[in-house]
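Dear colleague,

Thank you for sharing your sequence with our group. We've completed the structure prediction you requested, and as agreed, I am returning the results in plain text so they can be pasted directly into your records. Please verify that the sequence below matches your submission; if there's any discrepancy, let me know and we will rerun it promptly.
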Amino acid sequence: MSKKIFIHEYKTENRMNDEKEVHEEYLRDGSKGISFKALKMSKGKKEAYHKISGKELENGDFGVTVKKDGKEDKMTLNKKDFVAFIKKHKELAFLVKYIDKEMEKFRKTLKGGKRKTSRKTSRKTSKRASRKVSKKNSRKGSRKVSKKKSKRASKKGSRKSKK
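Please find the predicted structure tokens below.
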């Protein structure tokens, strides 16, 4: 059985002469919870670095790290505060979209919900299957008969040689 994982990864990088600008979005959701990263970095005339990363902890809270131009803030937020935090930061729009629309649907597949199976099968496949079964059965029957005949013939041959 394969592991079920949701991954969203988006990266753009623009370079012009000595200037470089990077935007990166990463989101991973699986059995261990959500982990995410948003990075906005530029080098050249204006140097800027802004990274927001975090993951879902075992108790249901979220550990979030914000790095901005050398300053680092770490915080632990409950779900309500976390949703308010990500809505406040526009670079985490991809995370808001996932939590609002797609997360619930994906988490149901993690639990292994009911699978819908259709009972309708095409007539061709059912006919083929029945033909295969009947062919196998007819082969088995003919093999048994031929084995019995060969055993009888060998017994008769051995009896004749004894006389």
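Summary note from our side: The two ends are 67 Å apart (CA to CA).

Kind regards,
the structure core
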